[in-house]
Amino acid sequence: MNFNQKVYEIVCQIPKGKVASYGQIACLAGFPRAARAVGYALHVNPKPGIIPCHRVVNKDGRVAPAFAFGGPDEQARLLKAEGVLVSQKGYVDMRRYLWHPFSF
Question: Which position among 7, 35, 53, 64 bears the catalytic label?
């Protein structure tokens, strides 16, 4: 499995109503210093709408200024449709919405 495939597999596990950061996805993929590569992989997402790349934000909770599938307003709209509050400035509260894949 190549890096992009691994990223897509992980992103598909993020549940509706939650978000993850690029760095978090990079760590889960086994490449903790590859946050930018995660961003690139999501930018070339071969299955938008199926691979929920809109659920990935930066470490501060900001939506992508260059969201490849309709811009930041579209990413915010998709998140809001899943119950994630996005501020007027395009931020998600990471304490509230961060995905914790290993929670017990």
Answer: 53
